[in-house]
Amino acid sequence: MSEAAQQSTASPLTTRFDGPAPEWSIGRDMVRRGLLAGPIIVALCAVIWGGDGLWSSLYGVAIVLVNFALSAALIAVGARISLAVMMGAVLFGYLIRLGLIFAAVWFVQDESWISFPALGATIIVTHLGLLAWELRHVSLSLAFPGLKPEDPSATVSPTAAPPSDNN
Amino acid sequence: MEAFSIVVQQADASDQQNIEAAAGAGLAYGLAAIGPGIGIGYLVGKSVEAMARQPEAAGMVRTTMFLGIAFTEALALIGFVVFILLKFA
Question: What is the CA radius of gyration of chain A?
């Protein structure tokens, strides 16, 4: 890489984003849609697995929504510090969230109301369904940005320290 | 004495089955978490590179990155569901 190209690239260690985080708006959208679609999934599980399925499905929907919200929060907070911190937050956050999901299931494994097939089906269907729904919305707004309502506060403002001389 | 040895044999077989089920479930979950871990690392690394090169496109990059992370994570969740079905159900 030439010296000019190196100087035009901001350092990931010092670049941070102070503006509103797009992850928050996506996460909020997904939680809102999860609250809309959740009762349908819960009702389906209640029909298939009965009362145990109902409670297990509710628990599964809660796990998925909390997982999305936590993921968005970690990325948003990390990006406010620096890109390198954001990357660390994503990777360690992945491990932490997998551990939290495991702990959430471990704590209820002996409860009388738990139905593992209902819980598993709910986690997979809710996670993939909400993602597909959000992806459709995001891809449409990226493909037709003119149709997207303008939000003046939604501009991301990068803040980068000048490259140091010893680079 | 003979009845006692039969009971011991049955208990051993049951324990062995439990150990094998736990090992299989743990292996399934562990293997299922490796791929998404690599995928998320690669995805975020490339996104950070893109944002550092072109900060004005950071909003779009972060949006697609977040969705990509969630999709990649779905693989780990599927592995986790296999794990809970093998271990607890």
Answer: 20
Q: Residue A158 phi/psi, 5° resolution?
A: -75, 140
pTM beyond 0.90: no
Residue B8 to chain A, least CA–CA distance (Å): 27
Q: Residues A71, B70: contact at Cβ < 8 Å? A: yes
pLDDT grade for A84, boundaries at 50, 70 and 90: confident
The SS3 call for residue A60 is helix
Instruction: Kindly report the CATH number assigned to the domain that includes residue B28.
Output: 1.20.20.10
Domain that holds residue B60: 15-88
Residue found by looking up tokens 């959430």 in the block: A104
**What phi and psi values does residue A133 have, to the nearest 5 degrees?**
-65, -45
Q: Per the domain annotation, does B26 fall within a domain?
A: yes
Question: Could you tell me if the ipTM is greater than 0.95?
Answer: no
Contact: B80, A123; criterion CB under 8 Å: yes
| Inter-chain CB proximity B84 and A119 less than 8 Å | yes
Distance CA(B76)–CA(B30), nearest Å, equals: 9
